[in-house]
Specification:
Two copies of one chain form a homodimer. In chain A, 29% of the residues lie in helices and 24% in strands. In chain A, the strands form two sheets. An eight-stranded parallel β-sheet of chain A has the order 3-10-9-8-7-6-5-4. In chain A, helix 3 packs parallel to helix 4. Chain A is elongated.
Chain lengths: 390, 390
């Protein structure tokens, strides 16, 4: 199960307790994944808006095919390596949703030519727009581009009220202009459905306003793209929006559970770990899943319920009461009860196995090169490779 | 430069500003690496003790060959995947320094047989010792094992004063017993040379005491293994110790600089990033190196000087005054000045490149699959692959 591979491997239905599974390893519950996707698909269909799944969490063509509404896309990626991988897998409409630089344009064009793929880029300055337009003029191929709008001041993007810059970028892009994109990153700090619905409405309103600025200036704006897992989940009206991007909801994680985007029982991703020792004097159970397997992500530390480095579950995926990964080293995870609880430590001898729900599915997934796919009987019936890197 | 590979690639001396280097990517300054290794080799030679470099930071056979005192080892690893990789690369004396479980013994034996490699395992309970001994009796091959001793209560190991358990484990191991191992993890919380020298002395004294417990009971203890980067660096006397393990010192990082194990100017590892945008209203420069490239590690947050997600340097490796990676998303890094400084933001237009020194070399390295090796002229002259996974 540990040889490198870039194809689907069928290990022949292996029990999670089997030594054939070398721990730590990543477990993906296919039924939960499919249910999370079905919920989002139905929700967005009802809102009458397109779906461009963000594949930066999964980075797996098998997951992408379940997530996309068609095998050819559309899809969102966060690296050109992802764009190449998914284009190779047949995806033909890809949005690279991180600001473009002139150095990357040759590689973007290589992807377009090699796989006959539409690869749309993102930018938020006249300088970038001029580079994209001049590259297009030079090569004879229009490179489609979106303007990033920043509705909540959390990262990149033109403020939606800065009509002058939005129009200047649109004009500099010329025929490359495709529309506007927003990401409501500040929704990650909320945790009430009502507040999340309001955040989704603010994201929608800013997107529609930015699109109107372009159209009022006589510029086209066929794409109005918004999204984040929390706002996608809680949006009640997406009038004027053409597509939604979201990714982490497919797997779910403890941070998104803290926001209220998913329920803990819907989290499809876990790390399988084996008990390698005990410090009974300290109330510790030590496993072989440290930060290398779980990631250093501690997103829940700033939420109402701090879940440590993860929630510890039995092999059926049921959380042990109050048992967390309290501390980690590179290849050691220290399990301990939440402070102040009256619960007893479960009896987990050397060699016993547990499943750990992650703080952040994107970060935990990135520590691994494959998913061990759990079927309905609680056995691993397939291995799906995933990519990393740039 | 982005195709997967498991061999050394020579890109033909590429400038750090060249678009041939797709960012973000990992840069390894070979001269600094060699100097860090030479310093440790000389220091341990002077102390008259062996060196078993920990390869969990580098995970690269090219780095291993520079670090080890002989091409066949000895070496320390943190996963069986590392053991397989380094055995394939010719290392014949490997210590797997994470507690063993019965499920892993078949794989340990496969490594021993396939590469004729001595693979020593680690344990801290009678239960594990009995599993190792019974496996040896069953297979007819002795599996060498060390007993982990915990001198500072930070993780696994038998307390050094628990003579009864130490002897019971030693007896259960029988002919498999090779000695004792300690890791002074608590030294990571110190930052004064004197205190670090004292921590090294406590680690040494506990190791020697544990060895004496075994010998007094008529049991052999040929190996007395200690180590951590801070204690290795500051040890002044290692009488009774046979070997030192350390790894992160080779590359150095901001956390170890905060401890005082290395100087910032000796840090050999950095992430090359490209400027992808600005938020001048907020004093932000945005690059394409987010947490995926830097890791989520924030070790310096609990030190006297919090270095954010990393210190930003120019292409020659000189830090820009007070410029840090203040915040990260998956593929975005936000550069900002340290709060309260009077410094001005450097002029870094779209497409400009910077190098970022990491909080934690082990964690940052693990986000990448190769090192771009910087030669004395500040150009990349080789690519060294590295492994990840289990």
């Amino acid at each position: 199960m540990n040889a490198g591979s870039d194809t689907t491997i069928n290990p022949g239905r292996v029990d999670l307790a089997s030594p054939v599974l070398s721990t730590p390893c990543l477990i993906l519950d296919e039924a939960r994944l499919r249910a999370n996707l079905a919920g989002m698909h139905a929700h967005l269909r009802q809102l009458g808006v397109g779906f461009r799944p963000h594949l930066k969490t999964a980075k797996s063509i098998q997951v992408a095919r379940l997530a996309m509404t068609s095998p050819a896309g559309s899809a969102t990626v966060s690296t050109l390596r992802e764009a190449e991988y998914f284009a190779e897998g047949g995806v033909r409409d890809i949005l690279y949703a991180v600001g473009i630089t002139p150095q990357k344009l040759d590689r973007v064009d290589m992807i377009r030519r090699r796989w006959d793929t539409t690869l749309t880029v993102l930018l938020d300055s006249v300088e970038q727009a001029e580079a994209v337009a001049s590259w297009g003029a030079h090569s004879g191929h229009v490179l489609p581009a979106l303007i990033e709008i920043d509705a909540d001041g959390h990262r990149s993007g033109v403020p939606p009220e800065d009509a002058q810059t939005i129009v200047a970028i649109g004009r500099a892009l010329g025929t490359a202009l495709r529309g506007v994109l927003l990401h409501a990153g500040d929704s990650y700090g909320l945790n009430e459905p009502e507040a999340l619905t309001e955040a989704a409405e603010r994201e929608r309103a800013a997107a529609v306003a930015a699109a109107a600025i372009l159209r009022d200036a006589g510029l086209p704006c066929p794409m109005v793209s918004v999204g984040s897992t929390p706002t996608a989940r809680w949006a009640r009206d997406l009038s004027g929006v053409t597509e939604v991007r979201a990714g982490v909801f497919m797997f779910g994680d403890l941070f998104q559970a803290g926001v209220g985007s998913v329920a803990v029982r819907d989290i499809a991703l876990s790390v399988l770990a084996t008990v390698i020792g005990h410090r009974r004097d300290r109330g510790w159970i030590i496993t072989d899943a440290g930060w290398m397997a779980l990631s250093r992500d501690r997103s829940t530390a700033r939420q109402a319920v701090d879940q440590g480095y993860g929630v510890v579950c039995d092999l059926a995926g049921r959380p042990y009461p109050d048992l967390l990964v309290a501390e980690v080293n590179q290849e050691h995870g220290i399990l301990a009860l939440r402070p102040g609880t009256g619960t007893d430590l479960p009896d987990l001898p050397i060699g016993a196995r547990v499943r750990i729900l992650p703080n952040h599915a994107c970060a935990t997934g990135a520590q691994h090169d494959r998913y061990h796919v759990l079927d309905g009987d609680g056995r691993v019936g397939a291995v799906w490779p995933r990519i990393n890197g740039w």
